[in-house]
Amino acid sequence: MRLKLLCLAMLCAGFLFGQPAPTDLYLRGYSVIPSPQKVALHEGDVRIDESWTIDGPAGHIATRWLASDLASFHSLKLSGAAGRDQNVIALKVQPGAVAAAPTETASQAYHLDIREGRIQILANGDAGLLYGVQTLVQLIKADERGQLRLPVSEIDDWPRLKLRFLHWDTKHHQDRMPTLKRYIDWAVRFKANMIGFELEDKFSYPSHPEIGAPGAFTPAELQEIVNYGLERHMQVVPVVQSPAHMAYVLKHPEFARLKADGNNYQSDLCQEDTYKLIFEMYDDVIRATRGIDYFFVSTDEVYYAGIGKNCALPYNPANRSKAWADFAIRAHDHLAKQNRRMLAWVEYPLLDKDMARLPKDLIDGVVGEDGFFAIEKRNGMRQLIYTSTQGAEYLFPDHFAIESLPPGKVMGEFEAVFTAGRIGSLYNSITRSRVWELDPIGSFAAAWDDSGLHSETFWLGWSAVARWAWHPGVPGPEQHAAEFMNVYYGPRVQGMTELYRTMQRQARAWQRSWDRVTSRVRKPGYGNSEGPGIGTERQDFTLAAPALPDAATLAFQPVFSVKYKGLITESNALSLSNDQLQNEIFANIGRASRNQYNLEVFLTIARLTGHHWKMIGALAKAENDLAAAASAAKRKQPEAAVGHLVAAHNRVAQIEREAAAVQRYLTEVWEKDRYPKGRSVNGRTFLHVLDDTKDHWADRTADLGYMFYPEQSIGLAQWRKSLSGITAAYAKRNNVEVQGLAEARLED
Question: Which residues contact 590 (CB under 8 A, 6 or more apart)?
Answer without folding.
Answer: none
